[in-house]
Structures are given as structure tokens and as C-alpha cells.
């Protein structure tokens, strides 16, 4: 079974058996490749990186957006295969991260939205994602302290 390390923020890959390692690495790799295509897509929309670039939304961008979906569907499929073989602790870890991500989305997202008129920015998807990521990070740390006790 997977070992959770770095204060609840990472899974130790060498602790996985051969099949789990394959599923996990394919999932992470496909997610990363999709994220690279997502970065190309971000240049065409307004967000935390500023105004959208004037790019033709023709066949090239349609291909890029399709590749995001394809790679992330593959990543989700292999992640699901990985999770199905894990023990109760790993399932609890994923649920903890999801729940704390939701709390981060609500609490930090609310804070962002309250401060946005004073700081001169609009709340969008990316700011809410950052709020979710902050909550997930806090959840991983709390999970480590509550269930793993010093990474054990």
C-alpha cells in the first residue's frame, strides 16, 4: 500500500507495488501533459495572468482543448484504478484532501471575494482553484498529524 510522506503532501512512489506504481505514474504523467496543454489554453482566456492574448481560436486551439480533455480522462481512469487497490487509510486520505479542499474553496474563496473590490481584481476560476489548493494542503497536513503521527 502507498506510504504518505512529506507531512501529508505526497505519496512515496517506491512504496507502491508494480501495478500500482504503473497506474499512479501513468495518471500523474497524463495529468501533467494535460496541464501543459491547459497552460496553452490559459493564454486565450482572461484570468490571474491578465487579459487574453489575441489568438485565433481555429483548429489548433480546438486540438489543444481536445488534448486537455483526452489526457485528463486517461489520468482520471488510471487514478481510479490506483485508488481501487488501496487500503482504507489511503481512501480516507483522499476523502480528507477533498473535504478540506472544499472548505478551502468556501473559506478562502469567500475571503478572496470579500477583499476583491478593495484590491481591484475579479474572482474567477483560478482564484477559486488556489483557494481549493490551500485547503487541500491544510487538509494533508492535518491528516498527517491526526492519522500518521510524524509520517509513520
Structure description:
There is one protein chain. The protein has four helices and two strands, in the order ββαααα. With 152 residues, it is mainly alpha-helical. It folds into two domains: 1-86, no CATH class; 87-152, no CATH class. A two-stranded antiparallel sheet has the order 1-2. The relative contact order is 0.15. The mean pLDDT is 86.
The succession of helices and strands, N to C, reads EEHHHH
Shape: flat
Overall number of strands: 2
Strand order of the largest sheet: 1-2
Characterize the quaternary organization of these chains: single chain
**Helix proportion:** over 70%
Give me the secondary-structure category.
mainly alpha
Distance between the termini: 13 Å
Beta-sheet strand percentage?
under 5%
Unreliable runs: none
Return Rg in Å. Answer: 18 Å
Biggest beta-sheet profile: 2 strands, antiparallel
Q: Count structural domains.
A: 2
What do the pLDDT scores average to?
86
Q: Count of DSSP helices? A: 4
Can you summarize this structure?
The protein is mainly α and 152 residues long.
Distinctive features:
70% helix; two-stranded antiparallel sheet; single chain; mainly alpha; 152 residues
Topology:
Elements: E1 3-5, E2 10-12, H1 18-42, H2 59-84, H3 88-119, H4 125-148
Antiparallel strand pairs: 1-2
Helix pairs in contact: 1-2, 3-4
